[in-house]
Amino acid sequence: MKSGKMFWTILLCFLFILVSMGWLMMENNASFDLKAKLKQWVGRTPTQAVKTNPPEMNSANIESPNGIKIDGTVHTTLYRDNFVLQAQEGIRCINRNGDVLWSSNMTMQNPIIQATAKYLLLCDRDSKEANVQVDGKVLYTVKTEQPITHAKINENGMLAVVTAEKGYKGKVSVFDNSGQQIYQWFSGDNYIIDVDVSNDSKALAVCTADASKGVVAAGVLFFHLDQDKPYVTEMVDDTLPVQIKCYQDGGVVLLGDNGVYGFTLYDKKRFKYSFEGREVLTFDMQSQAVITVALKEGIGASGVSSAVEMIDRKGSKKGRFEVKGELKQIDVQGTTIAANCQSDIYLINAQGKEVAKKYTWSKDVRTFALMPNRREVMLSGAGLIEFVSLR
Q1: Residue 32 clears pLDDT 60, i.e. is over it
Q2: Residue 11 binned pLDDT confidence (cut-offs 50, 70, 90)
Q3: Tens digits of residue pLDDT in 56-79
Q4: pLDDT tens digit string along 360-379?
Q5: Does residue 35 carry a pLDDT above 50?
């Protein structure tokens, strides 16, 4: 038993390194390779968050015959039908014609970029500052005393920020849509993995990791923002927590490494959907209708195979779609799912049925997004953005 406890203690130490680097607060379409991320992040040194003399970025991009040139871009985010491009020299927002709508000299080594229908959150992990913008104008800036590990904003502009606090396993601070701090909570026992503010902006959901009993368990805590202590505390044994999400109807979903767990803001655990030992490749929890997870099925004679599984908010599987190869990214609009495997793009519905022919891009897909019309995808790679209609 002692050796088991030692193993989980070591694992949790590595986990905290990842959390402090902000990896577990993954963006949509991020990879879920724990071992690879451990190798990638351990030993990284923080870098300066903002350069004082960035290159000029106010000129419009030139649209090439094959798309919009975006040389140097490392991250692309869909925001209000436009695109926020994050690169070494700063951030810019372009429209579909490649025109620069606004730009910023803020550079980020390990970005947290989240877009809602109105708000855009920009933050660099390990920095001490988070910016909330609307159409390129800074609405408010939050400055912290300790490094930021996570940050997440809800549809009302309420911001939750997690920091690494001395003497604690983490701290959550909540700010209203004017940037005023309205709540804080210190975790003394377990590391904070993720947080989310409810859609009505009255409650806070927190997930933590605990290895005190020799196995990693996820803690799920719900707080009223006018009370100091959680009103619901639930432990999910033998799972490594990854992300927690609040939904419009009061439901809450926890994604772990071995399954999906459903709650409501006022009840304990409602369901568990098991991954049955399969590895999580990527996921999307933004849709109000379905949770979408890409899983590695195994390695056979024909190579790696993957499956996209759609889970409804009651914990039942709605559909499944299998592909040959390892899925890299998925993006969801409503009940329509776009999936990327190598250079192939698939468009399916929540029942796992293809609603368009497979499209193969001539370049490597770095990032992609399913547009709100649910038929068009934005593809980014090789210094270009292209728009493709799937039929």
Answers
A1: no
A2: low
A3: 333 333 334 458 888 777 788 999
A4: 999 999 999 999 999 999 99
A5: no
Amino acid 299: pLDDT: 82
Per-residue pLDDT tens for 183-225?
A: 999 999 999 999 999 999 999 999 999 988 888 899 999 999 9
User: Distance between CA 347 and CA 353 in Å, rounded?
Assistant: 8
CATH of region 276-391, choose from 3.40.50.1010, 3.30.240.20, 2.40.10.240, 2.130.10.10: 2.130.10.10
pLDDT in tens, 106-117: 889 999 999 999
Phi (first) and psi of residue 35, to 5 degrees: -65, -45
Q: Give the Cα separation of 61 and 88 in Å (integer).
A: 16
For 264-278, give one letter per residue: b (16+ CB within 10 A) or e. ebeeebebebebeeb
Residue 15's closest CA among 242, 222, 172? 242
Token code pair at residue 319: 């559909």
Sheet order of strands, 181-187 included: 148-153, 159-163, 170-175, 181-187
What are the b/e assignments for 11-28, b being 16+ CB within 10 Å? bbeebbebbbbbbbbbeb
Taking residue 387's Cβ as centre, other Cβ atoms within 10 Å add up to 12
Structure tokens belonging to residue 186? 């210190």
Q: What are the φ/ψ torsions at residue 180 (nearest 5 degrees)?
A: -85, 130
Is 202 in contact with 193 (CB distance < 8 Å)? Answer: no
pLDDT averaged over every residue in the chain? 85
Are 216 and 240 within 8 A, CB to CB? yes
Sorted by sequence, the CB contacts under 8 Å of residue 7 that are 6+ apart come out as none
